[in-house]
Design brief:
It is built from 14 helices and no strands. It is mainly α and 294 residues long. The protein has one domain. Helix 5 runs antiparallel to helix 9 and helix 6 runs parallel beside helix 9.
Length: 294
């Protein structure tokens, strides 16, 4: 064990990569669900968290009984860190999608591998390979092309919220690598449940319509539930910088779903930038089959 991390075999690393890729695909639907739900931020966060708590709590209980949820109390400061960053980053994510475009949020989120790598380097002394730096530089060029000159002063609050969300998730990725024994599913179930009463004073008085509740349920189950757990479980097997880098697929897929659903057609520059991001991720994974390979 180096720097407090758990050793990762090639087989486990491949499993981790599949998990993270799956989480990126699921997570990329968040912007779509936020647009479809048409609720204010507090109401959307409250209902999304409620359904996420049902899904995650049900899965955790089915696999370990009520004792698995109660065991969260023994997680100590690591559990507090996970729950706190989960609540803050999840709320900031919804807020950012309300205040600015999906493309802008995804552009900020694309900084995840670099933030996670920086935290991982100082906290748990994770190595950074030359291949990672080259691929990351190529992907950054694609992200800059996607962003273009679309950002105005009115988007600053949304971009700030997106940065808070990204930084919070980066901390979690490094924490799960450092403390691999924590119960990610149970902790996130408790975090989602704790988020509901925090939002209640700010929600609208009227109950959402059945259609809105369906979208909130899908949002909670797919993105806050399954995608979050897949990303963090994959983070047990893959260095945090790699997790963040693979998650950049979300940067391309997020605007794609909104384009297909709401006809928000991206420009040729955005399409070309997205192709560069996807290509850099594919090249890195194809040319780096073993962990910590320079």
């Amino acid at each position: 064990m180096v720097g407090g991390t758990y050793p990762t075999s090639p087989h486990e690393r491949r499993r981790g990569i599949v998990m993270v890729v799956g989480s990126a695909v699921l997570w990329s639907t968040a912007g779509l669900f936020v647009r479809l739900a048409t609720l204010d931020t507090a109401s959307l966060v409250a209902w999304r968290s409620f359904f996420a708590a049902l899904v995650l709590g049900g899965l955790a209980t089915a696999r370990g009984g009520p004792a698995r949820i109660l065991a969260v109390r023994r997680s100590g400061w690591v559990g507090v860190l996970f729950m706190g960053t989960s609540i803050i980053s999840g709320t900031a994510y919804v807020l950012s999608l309300r205040l600015t475009s999906v493309a802008n949020v995804m552009t900020v989120y694309a900084a995840l591998p670099f933030i996670a790598t920086g935290i991982g380097f100082f906290w748990i002394h994770e190595r950074v390979s030359r291949r990672f730096l080259v691929a990351g530089a190529l992907a950054t060029c694609g992200i800059v092309a996607m962003a273009g000159a679309s950002t105005g002063l009115g988007d600053l609050a949304g971009i700030g919220a997106a940065f808070v969300m990204t930084a919070g998730f980066a901390v979690q990725l490094v924490a799960i690598r450092r403390h691999g024994g924590v119960d990610v599913m149970a902790l996130n179930a408790c975090a989602a449940l704790a988020c509901v009463p925090l939002m209640l004073p700010f929600v609208q008085v009227l109950l959402p319509s059945p259609v809105q509740l369906v979208w909130c349920a899908a949002y909670g189950a797919v993105t806050t539930g399954f995608a979050y757990v897949l990303a963090l479980e994959g983070g047990r097997r893959v260095p945090p910088g790699e997790v963040g880098f693979i998650s950049m697929l979300d940067v391309v897929l997020g605007p794609l779903w909104v384009w297909l659903a709401f006809a928000e057609r991206p420009s040729l520059t955005v399409i070309a930038g997205g192709a560069v991001v996807l290509g850099s991720v594919a090249w890195y994974l194809w040319s780096n089959p073993a962990p910590d390979q320079a």
